[in-house]
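Self-study notes.
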Amino acid sequence: MHTSLDGFVAGPNGEMNWISFDDELFDFVGTLADKADTALYGRVTYEMMQAYWPTAGQKPNASKHDKEHSAWYAKVPKVVLSTTLNEKNLDNTKIISNQLAANITQLKNQDGKNILIFGSPRASHSLLSEGLVDEFWLFVNPILIGTGIPLFKGITDPIKLKLVETKTFGCGVIALHYERKRD
């Protein structure tokens, strides 16, 4: 998840125009996607992804990243946390609208690769409050935005983390990889 240095994942109205990218970062995120066989989204992020990725790789000016991620997006099963979406007419997509802990635990216990959540701050807050997040990839952007949607919200008990690795990108973003410590 991208975050500003002051801990926001989007502006007050969901703005993300402050996020820094470069080819090196896109390639790195591609390696993370290659290690996942399920994409998890909140409704808002899913709708944003659906509006772009199904056809992004087919456009005449599509970048290498657009082509690669569009192909990955087309094949990967998607899980959306939503109480308003309906699974009808959604290709390769499952909706979880209740029993979050039970449904995500069942998903995590299936054989396969990683489950990767892209953005989706509100969904991340819900998953975190249920103890369902095992690791974080935080992409800290070199900007202070002052207000917006916080990276973390509603944490009532400390969550201990272990720093696994860091990576710095030419665009100024620093990736921090944390695993959750289980006592």
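Second protein, same conventions, sequence then structure:
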Amino acid sequence: MTPPVIREKSRYEIILAGAGGQGLILSAIILGEAAIREGKKVVQTQSYGIATRGGLSEAEVIIDSEEIVFQQVRNPDIILAMTEGTFEKFCDLARTGTLIFYDETFLEERKGNNLCGLPFTRSARNLGQGGSANLIALGAIVARTGVVRMESLVHVVTETFPVGTIEVNIKALRLGESLIAEHKD
């Protein structure tokens, strides 16, 4: 089932979770910077295990039109779960209305409201950029939720990555956007 589109909110609480080395902290920074460029207030925090690559990695982003007083996610609107462990950690929140995106490259398909499984890593490999699953997921999240404008993300990616990689990273964002278009019922 296609999850509902979340729009017209003044505050979003987002968690990006998976394994170290998947680029989730970078994705959170890019998302936060895009929101700042749209005139919004942003807080971005991160945590990761001792063994950064492969250990638990989690980034939180709060985007609000007003000042952000409490700087930790309490009621997530959106979660990205890139591993089975992170999906299991957050899956019960789907029942409370949290929209959960998960990488069906590694996780079995789940049925239920507020769940959106897409092949982020498989799509990155097919693109020839195995490390761009994070950007594909970010493009999908933005396309589904409208938390920021896609053009804002593209602008930040253009300024974040080296010249030789900008085009493929924008292509990854757009691939996430197209996965959402294909996923709609």
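Instructor comment on the second fold: Residues 1-5 have pLDDT under 50 and may be disordered.
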